[in-house]
Amino acid sequence: MRMREFKLIEKASKIFAVERDDILIAAGEHDAAIVKIGGKNVVLTTDNLHEKADFPEGMFPEEMGHMALAVNLSDLAACGAKPMHFLYTITIRDGIDDEFFERILDGMQKLAKKYDVAVVGGDIDFGDELYISGFALGVAQRIVTQANAKVGDGVYLTGLLGKAQLSLEQLFSGKKREEIAYPQSLFTPEPRINEGLELAKHANSMTDISDSLAISLNLIAEKSNVSIVLDYDLLPLDHLTEFVSLHKALELFLYAGGDYELVYTSKKKSYGFEIGEVVEGEGVWMKKGDKIDKIEFRGYSHL
Amino acid sequence: MRMREFKLIEKASKIFAVERDDILIAAGEHDAAIVKIGGKNVVLTTDNLHEKADFPEGMFPEEMGHMALAVNLSDLAACGAKPMHFLYTITIRDGIDDEFFERILDGMQKLAKKYDVAVVGGDIDFGDELYISGFALGVAQRIVTQANAKVGDGVYLTGLLGKAQLSLEQLFSGKKREEIAYPQSLFTPEPRINEGLELAKHANSMTDISDSLAISLNLIAEKSNVSIVLDYDLLPLDHLTEFVSLHKALELFLYAGGDYELVYTSKKKSYGFEIGEVVEGEGVWMKKGDKIDKIEFRGYSHL
After folding, report:
1. Is A52 close to B127, i.e. CB distance below 8 A?
2. pTM to 2 decimal places
């Protein structure tokens, strides 16, 4: 499905191609669009969640509201934008009463308040499945995209990866939500807003890890015309090998999504830890002793 | 459903209540939110459509794309805003192939080009039903809302009402799409963008007719603390009585939605025709000879 999505996004980019002075970054080129309004760099992004694909069983309504906002704020963070306004649409199905609805909104508003985001609009309708679409608007001082990584940059991550997918798989294997390893990563992931704002001051390229580190790095490498080489010895895997094999841990770290961390390339580190470097060439690779392996463009879906 | 929706929107407005200098009009108060960015009045709106509730049988994919954009542009028109940018989310179900998807986007882009709207972003996922959410951003010179109708204003409509619902009911009763009275009103309604831009220069209040004239006028009366009196003799019904009884025609004109026309109050008319006046008091009424009837806050859903 993920591959079909990328193919369709490419088609969409062609259909909607537009040259206009106020459009700095358009659809399909980055995590979000960037347009000029009243002299400001305005970042626009949208993400759609629905129950069967995106909400693990047992998720509380507050967490659904949190996630619908968080997934959009993460896209703004990836552009180093300060989030300003949010709008949502909700499709309510049978069995969702007014209290459940209010709890979704409470979760959304709690996260909104934390980052001073104003929820200024919404649309409510009724259908067979719970859907929450979100739209977020932010303002960026300096524009950072996936497209400007420089040879000689270090590659940095703001936090550990694989925690959300590990937790999800534990849930699938029969564990209760109190028993899984990283419930916060799965149910209330934290968008890296403050980190994104700081990193935008010096990063050459940046993106969030919505699908997988492998996909994010391949996008940066491709759009920047560079190669990225990860150093196996730098990858932190202990938080995963505590629960799974080393092989599985590496798979989760490289190819799982849902952790909402940022990956950036820069001449300096201001958050997180180094995992590799930007070199001449193409593609993404991992160096382990004498061996070098290609990191493919793939992820696996969150649910 | 419509009444539950209004109740939930009220709850949402309380949960998301916020006082901030950059928020001129917030959620639930109007057709769209209006915020200040870089000195501009930026109008933000979102609307969600899905197959079972919003797309009549036999609708072409291009028309679905048209409608997803049109419904959002109509909200911008209602605020007298020039539409600038659009983002969408699409949930694709089994049976929707790449060609069908592209035809949806083609329909969207055709309408976008007509009004110089840039489609700058989107999100694609997969589920059990076709969903299209839209988010539109526009810029308004002068802010017109539902809240400022003045005693002595005339009440004007930009076009005829009841055509979409009449056509839909003909479709339900077994007519083919070539045989229904007003296919364009049903399948490719035209948002009143240019009219909205002109009307915003002098209208005291304005809104679009998304649900029904009755609901739109009741919202204006309530938010402006005035009463609105329609003159039965001014209501154009011939385009409906050609097909249905006078009683049914009046019901369609007052209580049906889907026609995307604007209703406005002003000291002068610059588009459309007069249907009544703004007076002191409360509620919405219709004068017919010596009789005066209350126009209730109700509509009936599009499908």
Report:
1. yes
2. 0.94
